[in-house]
């Protein structure tokens, strides 16, 4: 659900204020984080296959390069706007800081429905967008990656355009999330979902939950939701009771056949057409309020709101999507004793492995999938422990604790660099 009055960047600023107050920071220490370093809007013209021309708005926001090059995905979605991109870029700054990798935050997007374009049209649009934002990006400045509506092929085209504009040089570090043949990292495609699975596993350990007795509901069957579901079911042995896509959701109290559902969806099916004995069709909102131990929103932002937060029945919410819970909903969930593990921790596996991909590109030396997964798990487990420690120290909720961890690093870096 998308509320026209909802401004995700304002929500981010409110969260920063709350965390700063909790750990005793003065406004002068962190006010810079409410002001993105650079915002670029570009007009893109696309020659369609039938010869007509369509026009689209594109954006790239660099929130902070304080701790390293800006890092963040490219989103193709009709709802893309500058406030959304600003918020996503800001979340990336905090996400990179909470997992302690040397990146800042950036994000980009084009207001387009990619399903309405042919493959040739998508390629032309991607190359136009890459060329339009090329003056402000590069391996040491700002490194895009896939996000909603984009994938490895789009990153391949983007990288090829950047390489061409660089005089024909091969510049694999211009983006991450590429195909392996062009310098992509093994393990990158499933990295965000694997990171979510790691966080869920750490929750089970911390709160003494037996994984095989736990019930998990997941909003989304895409790269993040689908991979999370598959790994949680296969590796943890937990029951996945609900899943959804854009057409709606399916629910079965005793558990869904995750492999079958993902095969059905990946084959082009919509869950509204999926039918098996004992499976009920539910709306996305009904999924969010279904009976479960762990709820994983893995779709878009602004899903758990003041309207439905009072009906959420999960013990834990693990934010696989960016910004799925509004500030008002956060308060309601906290008052009800529901622990929310925030996006800047829970879905950070993707940017961690993007960082690994960039490092491998720079070294021109590539790691095995086992090495990638092991290094990512080590970082995610350490970040989880840092956040839990901060929550205990400041008697705060997990979101505030994650921002406290990130703020401490960002403020320290700002003081070390000085004012210019």
UniProtKB/TrEMBL annotation:
UniProt key word Nucleotide-binding: yes
Signal sequence segment: none
UniProt cross-references to InterPro entries, sorted A to Z: Aminoacid_DH-like_N_sf (IPR046346), Glu/Leu/Phe/Val/Trp_DH (IPR006095), Glu/Leu/Phe/Val/Trp_DH_C (IPR006096), Glu/Leu/Phe/Val/Trp_DH_dimer (IPR006097), Glu/Leu/Phe/Val_DH_AS (IPR033524), Glu_DH (IPR014362), NAD(P)-bd_dom_sf (IPR036291), NAD_bind_Glu_DH (IPR033922)
SMART domains referenced in this protein's UniProt entry, alphabetically: ELFV_dehydrog
GO MF, one example: nucleotide binding
Keywords for the protein's UniProt record, in alphabetical order: NAD, Nucleotide-binding, Oxidoreductase
Site feature Important for catalysis, where: 147
List of residues binding NAD(+): 192, 223
Glutamate/phenylalanine/leucine/valine/L-tryptophan dehydrogenase C-terminal domain residues: 185-418
Pfam families to which the protein is assigned, alphabetical: ELFV_dehydrog, ELFV_dehydrog_N
Amino-acid positions noted as binding substrate in the UniProt annotation, renumbered to this chain: 71, 95, 354
UniProt-annotated catalytic positions: 107 (proton donor)
Gene Ontology BP annotations: L-glutamate catabolic process
Stated family: Belongs to the Glu/Leu/Phe/Val dehydrogenases family.
Protein name, entry field: Glutamate dehydrogenase
Organism: Candidatus Stercoripulliclostridium pullicola
